[in-house]
Amino acid sequence: MSSPSDEELQDALVQLKAAHPGLGIPKLHARLRADFPAWTVSEKRMRKILTALSPKAIVSPSPSSQLVDGLDITQWTTRVDVRMFDKKKGKGLVATQKIKAGETIWVEDPFIIAPEWEIYDKQRAGAACSLCTTLFASPLEAKARCPLCPAVFCNALCRKRSEKTHPLLCAAQNPASMPLLRWVRSREWMALLALIQCTARLLLANAAGEEALAADWAVVRGFAVLGMEERARYSFRSEPDRETWKAAFELFCATFHRPRREDGAMKNQTAEEKKVAAILRKPLPAEIEAALFDYNTGFLHGLGRMNLNLESHGGLYTLHAHLNHGCTPNASVRHLDQRRALARITVRALADIEPGQELFITYVNPELGYADRRAGLEAWGFVCQCARCMEEGRDWKPPEHQDGLGDLASELKAGLGVI
Ligand SMILES: [Zn+2]
Ligand SMILES: [Zn+2]
Ligand SMILES: [Zn+2]
Description:
Elements: H1 6-19, H2 25-35, H3 43-52, H4 55-59, E1 80-84, E2 91-95, E3 104-108, E4 112-113, H5 117-124, E5 144-145, E6 152-153, H6 156-161, H7 166-169, H8 177-187, H9 190-208, H10 210-222, H11 228-234, H12 242-256, H13 271-281, H14 286-293, H15 295-309, E7 315-316, E8 324-325, E9 331-334, E10 345-349, E11 360-361, H16 370-376, H17 387-392, H18 408-415
Parallel strand pairs: 8-11
Antiparallel strand pairs: 1-2, 3-10, 4-7, 5-6, 9-10
The structure holds zinc ion (3 copies).
């Protein structure tokens, strides 16, 4: 008889859980004993490992974050490099040289932007740039506009850049997007808005050619993912329910998936609408088609991807999405250029960072106590293992389990401090 290391036990439990997703702790313990007869593991120890494990690791044992193929990060900075840590942790950024507190590490424009609703409304009203979200003190500040719809832009450059997404979300070019956009606004569902933006970008990249599509798809699939089902299972936050997911998917498909060719209304299409219809008709590679339009393995995962990676003001940033959380962050993200490029982020060092050290930002208010940080991080599907959490969480105990909640999900919820 031998006692496995925490690491060995963790791996065995992840595999067992994947093979038998419905088992509660006592049955899982019995299975473990049957599969590993040489091990002595108490139920208490197993429970402890399980509650400390990230639900992401349990639900999806395959890597949930992957490197972005062919990503050249020198377009932003040479001061950091991407590193793939282990399977559970995924990727992160490490310093390649000494960075001093207060220094700017890089500046980045968003891959797509799903702004806060107040700003979204201003964009719709022509009071903010439809691309970079910069607010206009007067309508005269908008130096460019979409010739077909009310969208306005800072200048010709912002309008040009908007061609990666706007045509499919333009009231004149793709009128079918209007019900979807009105709906997402009424629900204030930012992850869906981000997914809409990403989808528009991918479909337009597909129209532009293989190379453009490969580059954009590599970025999207590189964003870490926690599926909506997994998220719902481990979270008690009030989020859209399954019926709402379905309704969203229908509108989403009506906007992006296969225009109705036999529809009599097609005859009255404007030249612009015809152009968009042709873009939507162009077949996608099977992998991307499924990732966008298969409900379970595509759409819901896509929403989960957006949830995990949105910056706090609502943009998706390719390099920024590589930053991991730490409760003692050594880097921060700011929107400094409010007059000319509100969506642009500047990543700055909060402390001296040595070569080889990882960069951390914080996903929750770092002034919170251990239990509140732990509960706050639940939305990202992991339990923080930073030095500070190890120290402050040493004597922390999950709240007592309630009667009748025997399954693993409830155990985990208890472990995450949300009941
Ligand atoms: Zn702009
Ligand atoms: Zn337009
Ligand atoms: Zn922590």
